[in-house]
Amino acid sequence: MIGATLSDLHPELSAQCPTCRLHELVVVPLRKGADGNWVQTDQKRWFRRPAPEDTEAQRVQIDACPVCFGAWFDPGELDTLAGALEGVEKVLEPARGVSARGCVHGHGPMNEHELPGVISTPVERCATCGGLWLDGNERRKLAAASTSEGQGTKTERWFKRGAIWAAQVLTHLPVEVDNPARGTPWMVFLALAVFVGIFAGQQLELIDTEYYGIIPGRLKIEHDYWTLATYMFLHGSWAHLLGNAYFLYTFGDNIEHLFGRVRFAIFFVVTGIIAGAVHVWLTKKTATPIVGASGSIAGVLAAYLWAFPRQRLFQVILWIQLKIPVWAYLIVWVGFHILMGFWGKGTGAEGVAWFAHLGGFLVGIAVAPLMLKLRRREVARSVRVPALP
Ligand SMILES: [Zn+2]
Ligand SMILES: [Zn+2]
Description:
Layout: E1 26-32, E2 38-40, E3 59-64, E4 71-73, H1 77-81, E5 97-102, E6 109-115, E7 119-125, E8 132-134, H2 136-145, H3 154-171, H4 186-203, H5 209-212, H6 216-222, H7 227-230, H8 238-259, H9 261-282, H10 294-307, E9 312-317, E10 320-325, H11 326-343, H12 354-382
This protein binds zinc ion (2 copies).
């Protein structure tokens, strides 16, 4: 809605995301920056550019899902975003069928409409209120379509031009790549603090790494099963600690947000315990002690893949902003552990605890869908308009 201020919002939405159902829709206030890109005005940024003249016309707010980046447009909003090229919405093909997704105003199932020559998947529109729902990936496809205008009927070409403009607005929305975590990830911070504190203790030789680590052979003979719960808080070297801290911080905050604090903490510890047990069960290096949170973090990574399969992460490397797909992070993560395994120094790195990582990953794959199911049920209960089941 262009020209609106935060106080005169369109009818207050309280709706579950009709696509992923993992979050309620949130108002995303945007302001057009000097470079023509839209900037999310309610987010802290490290490199804040000076705000240009803040006129009414340079402000927009949309209702979007911070998990899957789907966005809702009340009647006229997409047209308004498309600026001079009005009438984009009128070019929609007649309804092709009934969608499984419901209107966020509670008008029941929406209709599927084709966007001829632009994207292959239909977009959803409510027949009652005329609102339009675009999935996160549909927004990307709109952007991809904007690279070539192609041929077609006059209507199609004209629509495409509108779509291109809309796509430029949509794909410049920072919600696309911003970290969807909201609120402070206290459990992640707590874990990081504990890791650092304990590693300092190890360095000062106040904490005996071998005693608290898992030694598979010793565990089988002495039955010191409690080490399954302690090994994950110790680390073998600074590189080991920093690597794990980085991955936990990058992925853990989103998963903590989706799971909830207590469940996340339980998930983290239980995944670590099972990962350690899998290692003890399968490894042949029974005399090598293992330490580190990698097993738990593998579980967090697996959960992240379940929750954000299409997510790309926003990464600033040497002041260049890159969008990096999650699978690339997985490769980096595996590479990091190979490096640690062959060249890392320290107790935990004499052989990578591959089996522990594998165990953690499998726990994540198995448990995350259940956690997400719980989350969907909770979101449905907390909003006025729950998504269709
Ligand atoms: Zn969603
Ligand atoms: Zn409706």
